[in-house]
Design a protein that fits this description.
By secondary structure, this protein is mainly beta. It is 0% helix and 58% strand. It has no helices and seven strands. It has a four-stranded antiparallel sheet, with no helix packed on it. It has a three-stranded antiparallel sheet with strand order 3-4-7, with no helix packed on it. A hairpin with a 2-residue loop joins strand 1 and strand 2. The chain is rod-shaped and about 60 Å long. It starts with a strand and ends with a strand.
Length: 71
Amino acid sequence: MGAVGGQSLYQDDYSQLDISATYNINDDVSIYVHGSNIFEEYQQTYLEFSSQKAFQNVYEARWTLGARMTF
């Protein structure tokens, strides 16, 4: 909690859902997908009361697709 112009600054609860999955093609090769913040949640900050919005941090979903190989 900080202060803005003498008023207290609060942040609402924040949560996000991440997922990860891996598929082993064989003993040497696997592919994976990872999703971060898949529902694109945001952080809301407000002043004394929740109706007094200060700012939002809006985060997009991020996806990674890749392969792992052993030689």
